[in-house]
Amino acid sequence: MDNVSNAPESEPWQALLQVANRLFQARRFNEVLYQVVREIASRIDVVRCSIIFVDERKETAYVVATHETPESKRIPLDLKKYPEIVHAVHARGPIFIPDVLRHALLAPFEEVLRGVSLGSILIHPLIQEERVLGNLILRISSHRTLAPEELQFSAWVAQLAPAAIRNAHHYESLLQEKNDLERLAMIDFLTDTYNHRYFSARLEEEFNRAIRYNLSLSCILLDIDDFKWINDTYGHRRGDTILREAASVIKGTIRKTDFLARYGGEEFVIILPQTDLAGAYQEGERIRQAVRSHSYGEANQTKRITLSLGVASFPGRTIVTIDDLIRAADSALYQAKRQGKDRTEAFVAPL
Hints:
Elements: H1 13-25, H2 29-43, E1 48-54, E2 60-66, E3 75-78, H3 83-91, E4 95-97, H4 110-115, E5 118-128, E6 131-141, H5 148-186, E7 187-188, E8 193-194, H6 196-212, E9 217-224, H7 227-234, H8 236-253, E10 259-264, E11 267-273, H9 277-293, H10 299-302, E12 307-314, H11 322-338, E13 344-346
Parallel strand pairs: 12-13
Antiparallel strand pairs: 1-2, 1-6, 2-3, 4-5, 5-6, 7-8, 9-11, 9-12, 10-11
Helix pairs in contact: 1-2, 1-5, 2-5, 7-8, 8-9
């Protein structure tokens, strides 16, 4: 196998700078990988240009990018069928096979290679801080040969790629940190539901949308019955566990369009966009029955875990503001408690 020089005698800097600019403009990891193979394929006539990653045990390779499609797919390859990749992984340097039919390494696959009209293979390692990230592989038709400038161009792109990949990794890490911080600002840690502050902002958005498009908007306030007794009997740690389990059951019961938040203590609130009072009441009953039928371990042996729920809807005769909606749901919840708990009550405006 012939080594490919990493230091060409002359370089078309303008073209190289354009390639580098496009590579570093790509922010996402998969986007960078595709841009690398696309740059190669746009200047060199290849049967296929791809990037493969090899697992740490060097038993399986994965095609992570090809020039034919921007879709990112991890296509597994059996390395026993690709000895040239194995050789490149161990060599840690550029590998060029100018004639696949005359190379001993590929002799067992001669018939297959003739069938696909493959002429030559060029492999560049993508090295970052002495670590091989993957390999850039060019497969060339038997009807042509690689020109020296094509060999040089592919080497340049292979040298640029690891830095662009690192840049994309850094961007995605920062983006993930930003998303994590945003999530922390809106999530209640104990129950993994939205917190009261984020609920208030979301309710205002949904309320304004309901007014603008003349839509119904419902709200359910719900409370775990006798939660103080649960804490006093089983301890606060067990009480917290029950609170989390109940929240999980509720999340699994509501619709994807609904919004669940912890309102405070053992109280939760649900926003139901485009839902009238009858629809919200039905949903409240589904939630109540789901929580009631869930097994909470030893807590169920003495007393069943139940909910009381209050339902209210906008627009209504006495419900014209956000505060009206919350007060109405709270009033209905209070009524459910007075009526014996473990029930759903809909708000009825006084005459």
